[in-house]
Records
---
Amino acid sequence: MGIDKRLVKFILISFGAIDVIKLLKVILKMRFYLVILLSLIWVFSASSWINSQADSVYGEQSLASGGQDRTMETKIQLEASVDRPELPFNEKLTLTVQASWDGKQDRFKITPITPPECQKFEILGSSSVNEAKMVEGKTKSTKTFEFILKPTETGIGRIGSVLFSYVDNVTEDSSSLSTQPISVTINPPVEKKASRYKILLIIAIALIFIYVIYSAKKKTKKIKIADQTEKEVKIPEKTLEERKLETLSDLSLLISEGKADEFSSKVYKLTTNYLEEKYQIFTTGKTTNDIINSLSTLNLPEEQIALLKDIMSTCDLVKFAKEMVEKERCEEIFSKVKRFLEQNVK
Amino acid sequence: MHTETTRTAQDIKAIQKRVEKESLFVQELLSEIGKVIVGQKYLVERLLLALLSNGHILIEGVPGLAKSLSVKTLSDAIQTKFQRIQFTPDLLPADLIGTMIYNPQEGSFSTKKGPIFSNLILADEINRAPAKVQSALLEAMQERQVTIGDNSYKLEEPFLVLATQNPIEQEGTYPLPEAQVDRFMLKLSLTYPDRKEEWEIIDRNAEVGFPPVRKVVNPDSIMKAREVVNQIYVDEKIKDYILSIVFATRNPEVYNLDLKDLIAYGASPRASIYLNLVAKAHAFLKGRGYVTPEDIKAIGMDVLRHRVIVTYEAEAEETTSEDIVRKIFDEIEVP
């Protein structure tokens, strides 16, 4: 237990507790920027989450189960697939036809394929991509055709065969391949769940925007007030001695009330507090002699040390020997402390 | 008789005058002892404190620090009897307190008083004697009387025991139990003299023998001084300070001191009693009729160092009871 506490203390001292406090203050000052940063992070996370929600709504379908067809030819492999086996009416379907072969791209001359015949679908557009890559030291070429299909009505839709004709440039043989027709279920239209999150996102962005404007206005106002305050006549802060003199004058009431004991205790405390604040000396566990000895190391004028010793010793007499019940002695202490503080003001 | 709270400033002034009158011998006594003993002002002052507050002292220190010589010189200066008893493993209680001796010619027993019948006793290496001898001494210290056979004999006042323990050799010793140590009013820790003092020690010991010690006071004056010490005023603020110190050794957490894990047992109520008594004696030595926090701080360590028992954890961290007492005095607010 003790070791742990000491370890914590050591770590605190090592890192500097004051620095931690400073860091906290800086964080407080930078809160405006932090809010923006956190909001951006939130927006980013929210949009990622929305995307993932959207994905989960549509679902990724296995191509294998999507009604793919593979007509094996000795040299060219042909594959046709859709991105999902069923879809809502208000979405689009992608049909991918991919031909791949070993060797370079120019090995075969490929006749442009005709779009498939579709039932309950209309073709919105198509694209093709050629690709060649090295696999285990051998060149492998691919030609991919993509068709974007839009459902025209609900039910079981059918995508007809795609005819693929080619000529081998090496052997000058010509041949053709075709894919199997694919069936896709077209469901009634589904409302997108993500729209709710989009609204939330818009609200969040709007709130951030409002906060930014509000903060900016507030900051401007603050700067204006600060400028105005600076322009106003500055009231000088009271010095430590002035504050202690004020407290001392309040204590003088105790003399007139005849509370000599209380007066001397409070004057002693006032003096030690002043010394702590002025010279940063620790007086809690120190006696009058200890305090005077500490002051001796501070190169204070001997006259001041003697005056302090006189004040504190007299207070000790009152506190511990019931001395100085007379009003005159209290007034004597009062004037000595006053003199000491006034000397330091100068 | 006045209680502390009903005392007026006039009463305290009267005590002050008595203290000033009765403590005149103190400076004279100290300077007379100083003719023989170099340094060791701390030891001599503590001997006087114990003498004035009717207590006993336990000293832990290496050999050769003029312990015997200090007590002997003090004894000469105050005109009291002095005995040095070397404690050994074969020492018997009878060797200490005395015994009944049979006289065959008269056919009767006569009492042979032991060396304890003296005023100032140096019990050298008390931890070398078995427990029953230690108990006999401690009982005599506490009761201030000795029973031999059927008769009880009062010990002569002033009666002061200065027991020593050698901290170096612990083999074959009988360390005093904590409860027995608590009976000593003060436990002192002596250190070697500084270079300047030791230079003077060489010079003084260049000749055989020591200068004769002048008799400064008699035992009656010491007893009279004790009466004055008893009357010295202790303000309530001082008593509160004493209690704060003692209670801080028992419940340091109450005083925001992180010492709980280091203290196994705090100081006993004897500590509060002795802090009050010895502080009064200290004020007397300083010529004051009232106690100040300076007095408490001056003697606090000697009263408390053997009454605060540290834990194994503290021992492992090489934290001594002195470190703990010092911390308490540094942290508890002085009134």
---
Amino acid sequence: MLEVKDLSVFFGNIRALHGISFDVKEGEIVTLIGANGAGKTTTLRTISALNRPTGGEILFRGEPITGMKPHKIVSMGISHVPEGRKIIGNLTVMENLMMGAYTRTDRAEIQTSLEEVFQRFPRLKERSRQLAGTLSGGEQQMLAIGRALMAKPVLLLLDEPSMGLSPILVEEIFNIITTINQQGTTVLLVEQNAYMALQIASRAYVLESGRIVLSGDSRELQANEGVRAAYLGESA
Amino acid sequence: MLQKVNKMLLMVIGAIVLYVLLKIMITIGVINPYWQRVLFYSLIVIVGALGLGIIYGFTGQFSLGHAAFVGLGAYSAGYFSKTFGQYGVLSFIGALLVGMVFAGLMGFLIGVPVLRLKSDYLGIATLGFGFIVKVALDNADKLIPDLGGARGMMGTPQLASLEWLFFIALIVIILTRNFIFSTYGRACTSVREDETAADMVGVNTFKTKLMAFIFGCTLAGLGGGLYAHTYPYICPGDFYFLQSFDYLIVVVLGGLGSMTGTVVTAIGWAFLLEGLRFVLGPQFVDFRGVIYALILIITILVRRQGIFGGKEFGFLVPQVRRGKPDVALRG
């Protein structure tokens, strides 16, 4: 579904990505794990066209999407749940959700999507008239995911959904991600919480200073000595 | 749905009652011709300020050249009226349309290059545009003698009556309300709050900014057109950058992102400006500048979000803001 080939990104003179290649197949959960500054967020932002690549190519369903405008990418079916949620604090929860459906014109189905989101996140329904900025961290994360789902994406990009959440909430969010995936949405997940990410993903790539240093089946990686030492907090 | 229709109806009825009251007060002389002028001016300021409210208050695009667009509207509408004035009301409507289209078109031409800039830089660019317009108007008589250049333009027909001003302001308020609570209006708010977030939900941020800018400039042009038909004499100095600050002050004092705030402050502003004339007396009339500068400073110190701080009168707020989907309203 998504193919990234030899992608390079520069910030001024600093090279953030050194020609990385990976792919996400339909129906999968694929995760990119790695430490701070490895280039995980940059990768997602480049797929969403928020950063411009200096080299390489991104194919979505076989079509090149490199160089497209961000709003085009969304209407093609890629939704991005950004790091730090980026919900619109001065709009109500309902308005934020309606913003998620901005690119859609099928009115009746927007209503259906809205009901689905409320079913998945009953908390959002309770708080639908509240300003989004007044929600708790966990609720904001739910809203960010709900908003992305309102676009009816085929591919969901998730950037650090566990950030700043309590362990129980992290568990809950990851369960939700699994269900979303089971219901047919492909997921590309970026996480620092490698333990949780490897549990729900089918495949994983390990990013280090802008390079992919390791890839494979999540279970294999979970057993990998180096990964255990570097990302799962076990001494080798 | 029924509730929504009722609310709108109530608002229109309320406005008509207000109009009748004003009309009676003018007829029996409670509002003398002097205060009537002030009232007219406040209605014009509402139209112009709502334009800036959309550009700056709701979309977050800092414009310091708003009065220039008002001026472009005033001059183009005034010139049209002077040329085709013999058709009365018809030419008045035509003139207002000309003012709106001209200001909107200029907004488009200026917006395309400058809206790529952010905040302060955008302010400087629009400030520059304001100077260009002032100089162009000062020297316009060299191209079209009727525009009068720095001496100003005289003889525009005085067709803007209370009816026109009041109901045009009312229509603009309703239009603005419908715009800001529409999908496009929410797109504007998301651009203001966080451009990246807007990008991520699929908003074409540049197009949204441009659309808001053109809409705002068109309202400025309408305000200008009304201005030209309220005052028999207009000159380039009426639309200089100091006037741009007046609009800015109205929008900021009222509260960024509050239509209610803009309208209430526009009225308050016009009346304060004149009221202080009496309070201070002829000797100290120039101290007015000190007083409203102080009001601005105090507001920013104690209530940075402005008087209304992004809030609206309840009757202006539609369902979706209250947590009901507006799927049926989209379009």
